Amino acid sequence: MNLKPETIEKIDKLVPRYPTVRSAALPLCHLVQEDQGYLSQEAMEWIAERLDLQPINIIEIVTFYPMLRTEPTGQYHVRVCRTLPCALAGAYKTCKSFEKEFGCKVGHTSEDGKVTLEFVECHADCGKGPVVMVGEDEYTDIDPEKAAEMAAKMKSGELPNGL
Amino acid sequence: MALQETRLIFKHIDEEGYTNDIDCYVKNGGYEQLKKAVTMKPEDICAEVLTSGVRGRGGAGFPAGMKWKFLDRKSGKPIYLVCNADESEPGTFKDRQIIHQDPHQLIEGMMCAAFAIQAKLAFIYIRGEFFQGYKILERAIEEAREKNFLGDNILGSGYSCDIIVHRGAGAYICGEETGLIESLEGFRANPRIKPPYFPAALGAYQCPTIVNNVETLCDVKHIIEMGGEGFAKIGTPGNTGTRIWCVSGHVQKPGYYEFACGDVTLGQLINDVCGGLKPGRKLKAVIPGGSSAKILRADERFTGKLKDGTEFDWGIEDIPMDFDSLAAVGSMSGSGGVIVMDDTTDMVEALANINYFYAHESCGQCTPCREGVPWMRKVTQRMVDGEAREEDADLLKSIADQIAGRTICAFGEAASWPVQSFIAKFKDEFVEKAKEQAARRKEGEEVAKETTLI
Known about the structure:
Chain A is an alpha+beta fold and 163 residues long. Chain A has seven helices and five strands.
């Protein structure tokens, strides 16, 4: 495992703070995913060993929580909220606009690896729907026109990928 | 009734020049209540919280002081405090504002609560999608530590307590307090069986644990400031303090609005506070307390008796926004997420959208929920895809009836109540959908209509 020194430092600081080492499992999944972009088999085994657990203990967490990934995303990870308040504000149309611009169906990564487009559930900003996340950055009130503008900026590399 | 907001928790939210650092907070009187709290007897703070009558703001509305009273203090085990910042009930976006704009209010409320219950360690379980909120809280905690508002020997009181911010990873079920605890311990968030696992007795690490919502913990700070009796003067008896109503959907001005409990009616909230509906639209339905809450139909008459015996006869717009009134009309105030739907809304699509959510979020532990909720999703999806059957409404209700009450946690009800209430109130639309599709099929037309909500 080739983790950045700052990731190792964060991990070493975090683990002893918890009453049990196992409590650090989910935080470590986050830290390693942020470092590597996703959680490979090797990464899950590394986390398990670091916490004196079995690989299955980590795999069962990774397969349970939607935000943990076992595959890398495209350069841009676009998440469109589709839950009722965002849907009432037009989120499905927003997503269709992204699909058209990227030439890629929701739930998939574009062929050029530029974009992974996903539906997600409520992001708790329902007063400003439709809500779209690009990496860790939040964009609100995204109608289909704004989605097309965002897509253009992603294609040109102008928009930060939020990571 | 006055339409003036009572901003207690949201006093500084969106205030110009108000920043989320500790200097700004302290300049505005921050941490004075913690200074006061550590000079009080912990049991006196608990008594004030009980007197205040403050009910949990996360969804269930259980009196927080009572929850604290259930703490097992005889076991001698360490006590933990957990702030539930998972904010995952669709339609709810109040905790986000507190975390982003006024994080020290939460930290002060938490440390007051931690001192009161004599917690050894405190956690903030924050939903994974709040990337920025996580960073803000981490920074705020370090600022508070530097000023000795948390950590060792807080303000010279001899009491020590730290806060760990623990991030979730996108699972709705982590909002359920025992699921949250499982997640905190490093497991899948499968909720625990109660009894014996009431957190106050057997919570995190099998130790007594209090789990409270962000807003509830902020209330604790204000209860110390104004005293339990003073706090109880806000709102109405049994519905004390303020509520932050998060309004989304088909209104002109969606947003968050804080009112004393019972100070505003649903009609005032929609028409006056939120600027009403879009021109030419009519109100069709409202889900008043997050997507799990039972839907209210705009043309219903609500009659019955309140807890105190008062008879009521309300239209939807007359319902006072508080815990007991919304319960009395057969729904709930839940987490305060008010989802408004106008007459352009297709109720079958709306339910299909909700069912998609719950099917996605079932943890899979209990058979009725794991199997039944995706089944309900399949039925509503089929209906919008052009394969609706006239008997589908009854089928949906029958599945929901077999889930509710048969699961370890309240997710079974959370997933069933929307289905049961949509069918109870809009059955005609579900049947009509099947008839329309049959007619179009007969004419050789495209059977399914283009959908907007699913």
